[in-house]
Amino acid sequence: MSHNSFGHLFRITTFGESHGPALGAIVDGCPPGIELTEADIQGFLDKRRPGQSRFTTQRQEPDAVKILSGVFADPSGRQVTTGTPIALLIENTDQRSKDYGDIAEKYRPGHADYAYDAKYGIRDYRGGGRSSARETAARVAAGAVARKVIAGVTIRGALVQMGPHKIDRARFDWAEADSNPLFCPDAEAVARWADYLDDVRKSGSSIGAVIEVVAEGVPAGWGAPIYGKLDSDLASAFMSINAVKGVEIGAGFAAAALSGEDNADEMRAGPDGQPVFLSNQAGGVLGGISTGQPIVARFAVKPTSSILTPRRTIARSGEETEIVTKGRHDPCVGIRAVPVGEAMMAIVLADHFLRHRGQVGGGGSACCDPDRLTIKE
Predict the structure, then answer these.
(1) Residue 71 backbone dihedrals phi, psi, to 5 degrees
(2) Crossing angle for the helix pair 38-48 and 337-360, nearest 10 degrees?
(3) What is the dihedral of CA 135, 182, 310, 95, to 10 degrees?
């Protein structure tokens, strides 16, 4: 199977299956001299880890990461990157492959079962193999490394819509998103969403969601015109996440209903001579290049396809049948997609930071310190 790598100068390759012995990632292109320990990665994996609330799959995985290569203790005793490939390993410990025995010859509607079989002539029915959301654990680990490369950038994600229910933007609070299991930034919406999702879960069904990811501290100048656009790479990154069916940057699809006056992000001169934008309909990217404003992106996640409600399908033999998917599944897979979205944002930004540095060096509006590889304002 090809196309398991993403990025250019900062490049990740993930491996492993949902019910295999382990998952992992190879991070290539990370500059040397950056302090990196397993603890730097583990916190982000814990945020994504299953079984932490009744709203996610009850599969119990510690998701403990091991760094196998690419770091070395310097003379001061710090563990730092060496500039060589960083290998990250996450062992699977709670697979229950027997849960999938009844569907070994049936295709789950809405899942990748049929498409994989049609392409490869074989599929891993145990949780979907590579098409399982379990693969995203490796991305989150790689994203933690990317965050170290762009240490001056803050990346945060939140669930802004569950099914038809949206947050109230007037109550948006990042601290609230970090304090509840739904990653919801609207305190008043949390209880309503919890009751709603309980009903969905108890009925054996599932529901979709919309996740918003914001990066602050990205200077103007990252990205490139036409085929190296920052926003096109972000769209590709988010669309590569399992179950994602739509991406928008800034105003996104809502821009189609705006006038030219409303859509234009007007500018005034700031006290430091840099422009101050009066709005951010562009989501921090113009012409494929960052403007210095927060980069704002949203992606839509479809409902989990593995549900208890009987669905019509066909068997591998072509026989018409029905299917019920047993096992442990997320009633709203969008919840655990929040840290995955943050990771993919970090990976794209780390790649564009290195690409920008390679093209313009230390000049321009986005200088970097070659000793610390952190962004200078």
Answers:
(1) -130, 160
(2) 140
(3) 40
